Automatic annotation (TrEMBL):
Organism: Schaedlerella arabinosiphila
Reactions listed under catalytic activity: ATP + protein L-histidine = ADP + protein N-phospho-L-histidine
Protein name, entry field: histidine kinase
GO cellular component terms, A-Z: plasma membrane
Gene Ontology biological process terms in this record: cellular response to phosphate starvation
Transmembrane segments: 12-41
Subcellular location: Membrane
PANTHER family cross-referenced by the UniProt entry: PHOSPHATE REGULON SENSOR PROTEIN PHOR
GO molecular function, one term: phosphorelay sensor kinase activity
Top-tier EC class: transferase
Superkingdom of the source species: Bacteria
Length: 327
């Protein structure tokens, strides 16, 4: 409407110039002014139209989870504005998708935790009821008490590891820098599983030079190694062997945990450090958080952990604790 009114005024002005016998120069000047006015009004109109389209585009985003198509402007400040708006929209959508994924992961994790705790609690409840029977013989009573103790230890281990993982996720776990004799650390890591290895008839050996020292958090590093040792023992058949040995060079301290057990299928190898992941050969008692915690704990101390395996031959975990930050 504004453009139309200006054209009417300009046309009337030109008509008055002609009637009053104005010169050609004055008329041409008036036409130039008219042309400039037309260009200015047209440019402003286009800008307003593009701004209106951008506003409508943003309004569509409120009701549309997908990114709607829009006309692209490549020139001028409007093109820059559109580009920045598009980047902002994409970033917000990525954050929203990430938040949704985290919410789904949390729901799945809580479901897995509930299932893992529910199973031993059910066993404890059943065996506790059986213990109430006054006619139960002493041998069975001792067996049920031993199983209840085992299930309680399993729940305790599960909760402790889950709390540790949550502390690491929230960056609340404070790690110490201690100068630790590596051989003593490895022996401490293996000590809780000596009885398990004996019962399974699996040989467990530790080989490390007594002079090797490692700067790390002794408690949590031992916990990380323990989880890997436990995994190896559980997947090694009677008569098998689990080796834990170490060496050191100027770059890193290397800890190798090897077994000659059943091995891990190639398709499972990329995922065994994922939380709650269970490979096909894992027992029903497996929770799937021990290796995840070990990996996270090693990463927090400037280290790496990798695994190689061959079915029917065995598995090898290789921990590297770097002396300096590797860029």
């Amino acid at each position: 409407m504004e453009m139309v009114m200006q054209w009417i005024i300009l046309g009337f002005s030109a008509y008055m110039v002609i009637l009053s016998g104005g010169s050609h120069t004055a008329f041409l000047g008036l036409l130039c002014c008219a042309a400039l006015c037309f260009i200015s009004v047209r440019t402003r109109y286009r800008r307003e139209k593009r701004l209106e389209e951008l506003i409508l585009y943003l309004m569509k985003l409120q009701d549309n989870p997908e990114l709607p198509e829009m006309t692209k402007y490549s020139e001028g400040q409007l093109g820059v504005l559109q580009s920045e708006l598009y980047k902002l929209v994409v970033q917000n959508q990525e954050k929203s998708a990430g938040a949704l994924k985290e919410k789904e992961y949390l729901a799945q994790m809580l479901s897995d935790i509930s299932h893992q705790i529910k199973t031993p609690l059910t066993s404890i409840t059943i065996m506790t009821d059986l213990l109430k029977n006054p006619n139960l013989d002493e041998e069975k009573r001792a067996e049920f008490i031993d199983k209840i103790d085992s299930q309680v230890n399993r729940i305790t281990w599960l909760i402790r590891n889950l709390l540790t993982l949550s502390q690491m996720d929230a960056n609340m776990l404070k790690l110490k820098k201690q100068d630790v004799p590596l051989r003593e650390l490895l022996l401490k890591s293996c000590q809780p599983f000596e009885i398990l290895a004996e019962l399974k008839e699996v040989e467990l050996s530790v080989e490390a030079d007594g002079d090797i020292r490692l700067i790390c958090d002794e408690h949590w590093t031992a916990e990380a190694v323990s989880n890997i040792v436990k995994n190896c023992i559980e997947h090694t058949q009677p008569g098998g062997k689990v080796w834990v040995f170490a060496n050191q060079n100027n770059l890193a301290t290397n800890i190798v945990i090897r077994d000659n057990g059943e091995g891990i299928a190639r398709e499972h190898l990329p995922y065994i450090f994922d939380r709650f992941y269970k490979a096909g050969n894992q027992s029903g008692d497996s929770v799937g958080i021990g290796l995840a915690m070990s990996r996270q704990m090693i990463l927090l101390q400037n280290g790496t952990v990798s695994v190689s395996s061959e079915e029917g031959v065995g598995t090898e975990f290789h921990i590297k604790m770097y002396s300096e930050v590797v860029i």
